[in-house]
Amino acid sequence: MNKIDNIIIKYCVYSIPLLVGLGIWGSTGNPEELSMATGLQGILWNFLGWIAMTWVVSAAYLSCKTLFKSDFREIVLKKISGIKERDEREVQITGSAAKYTFFSTSALVIFLLLLSMFTIKIGKYPADVAKEGKNGFISIGINFYPIENPKPKVSVSSDNLQLFNYSGLPSSNASLLILILSWQLLSYRYFYRKET
Amino acid sequence: MGKSPMKLNISNQISSLRAENKVTQEELAQAIEVTRATIGSIEKGKYNPSLELAFRISLFFKKNINEVFNIEGNHE
After folding, report:
1. Average pLDDT of chain A to the nearest whole number
2. What global pTM score does this model have?
3. Which of A3, A15, A162, B70 is least enclosed, having the fewest CB within 10 Å?
4. Residues in chain B whose beta carbon is closer than 8 A to a beta carbon of chain A?
5. Do B34 and A196 make contact, defined as CB atoms within 8 angstroms?
6. Beta carbons within 8 Å of A60's beta carbon, 6+ residues apart
7. Domains of chain B, first to last
């Protein structure tokens, strides 16, 4: 890893608290007013804004390099996941922890895929429509949208007809990816510790 | 299904050989280029070393491999 990459990685890691602070400040105050602000407040807002922009560019560069450069990927991901291969025992433990992590992550992805595909509708027929012995309905089905998942994901209707409607995971793509990534890293660490 | 494979119980004398030669786990680990934890695991029988590592340990103590590692076989 060269010096510039090292500096960029450190910048991306150590500026995270500033970005969190900027996010909190932006969500509690009015960003439009803050961008027009003068004095110390304005200077600070603009400074944090530049930090955020530089962070985004740096993070994009690092993620592209991690994707395409295998030696860089190995160094960075070894540090993030805490992989140690100093001798044959650690290489063996890494292998079996990686196997268990692959299994548990695959199981999670399959589970999330099913949750994102199936639909449940629970409803009650209005009194004039209800037939003898049939006051409500439960419908379970499967939906698959390869490009876009229509909303709403989970809703509880206010009218009498539909009481509950579930059609896919009520989460954003980003939060799902964070969940899978965190699961993968944490399960690797768990299995590694368990094996040692 | 055929006969179940023979399970080998491998024990070792590393701990007593270390005590005899007044060598710490750390010193042995450095000499044979492994971590101290690996020496600990081998001594406790939690990890069976590769043939190469077993020979490195034996050579360190100037012993034959069967003087350091003992194998007892039984069918399960």
Report:
1. 86
2. 0.74
3. A3
4. 33-35, 37-38, 41, 47, 49-50, 53
5. no
6. none
7. 9-62 (1.10.260.40)
